[in-house]
């Protein structure tokens, strides 16, 4: 499997480059609408999904090929849905993200209160929950501004993921030489 991975190091490289490009685009045009981000994100998902399917079907992914194939097919299906319904996808995405922030914030507060008997400074966990709830409510009240904030968050994630994939690509590539 190690040899198979080292021969396919370029797949990780391309995933990393695609992630970094997506992140840079998110920051380069902050005024761009979330609709445009949905379309660009769908393109990224399509590229990422196709390469994941290729890696899975190459027969060299070892026993974990099924999970990689599932990830790739899921990414391709989501990309197609995003392109088919970009406006609805953008609105749904904003409200889903806001609801997630609120629900996770409530869970963080509850967990933080439960931790007070176990650790000190549990108030930091509670504070994190409060921040999550405030952010979620703000996104629901101001979906356009919240959409831009979400684009920046996703752009940050895409750049971080891309950098990690680049590092992985070169580490896997160096295994070939060893």
Task: Please give a structural write-up.
With 178 residues, the protein is mainly alpha-helical. The chain has one domain (2-177). Helix content is 87%, strand content 0%. Helix 3 runs antiparallel to helix 4 (65-84), helix 5 (86-115) runs antiparallel to helix 6 (123-141) and helix 6 crosses helix 7 (143-177). The longest helix is centred in the C-terminal third of the chain and has 35 residues, at 143-177. The radius of gyration is 19 Å and the shape is globular.
What kind of sheet is the major sheet? none
Instruction: Give the CA-CA distance, first to last residue.
Output: 15 Å
Q: Number of helix segments?
A: 7
Approximate helicity band: over 70%
Question: Which structural class best describes the helix and strand composition?
Answer: mainly alpha
Shape field: globular
* N-to-C SSE string, H for helix and E for strand: HHHHHHH
According to DSSP, the number of beta strands is 0
* Uncertain spans: none
Could you report the average pLDDT, rounded to the nearest whole number? 83
- What's the number of structural domains? 1
Computed CA radius of gyration, to the nearest angstrom: 19 Å
Proportion of beta-strand residues: under 5%
Write the layout of secondary structure elements.
Blueprint: H1 2-7, H2 9-28, H3 34-57, H4 65-84, H5 86-115, H6 123-141, H7 143-177
Helix pairs in contact: 2-3, 2-7, 3-4, 3-5, 5-6, 5-7, 6-7
